[in-house]
């Protein structure tokens, strides 16, 4: 899989599912992203894609790793529109 391509797809999905916060940045809850059928079909390893995007400073979220259920209410913030 091409990591840059996956990160671009992730940005599109965050824009589709997210909403603007007070700072004008697009945010989405991890649970919304994880439980979305379209995202489930696109991303084989969503958590890995999120980690790669965070490393590239495209997104930000609290912690190192997000787990379904435990981190459903964690905001994923899009840093680059």
Features:
four-stranded antiparallel beta sheet, single chain, Arc Repressor Mutant, subunit A, 4 strands, alpha+beta, 4 helices, 81 residues
Walk me through the topology:
Elements: H1 3-17, E1 19-20, E2 26-29, H2 30-35, H3 37-42, H4 46-55, E3 59-60, E4 75-78
Antiparallel strand pairs: 1-2, 2-4, 3-4
Helix pairs in contact: 1-4
GO biological process, one term: regulation of actin filament-based process
Domain Costars: 1-79
InterPro entries: Costars, Costars_dom, Costars_sf
Verbal overview:
The chain has helices at 3-17, 30-35, 37-42, 46-55, and strands spanning 19-20, 26-29, 59-60, 75-78. By secondary structure, the protein is of the alpha+beta class. The protein has one domain (3-78): Costar domain (Arc Repressor Mutant, subunit A, Orthogonal Bundle). The chain has a four-stranded antiparallel β-sheet with strand order 1-2-4-3. The chain is globular, with a radius of gyration of 11 Å. The two termini are 22 Å apart. 23% of the residues are buried.
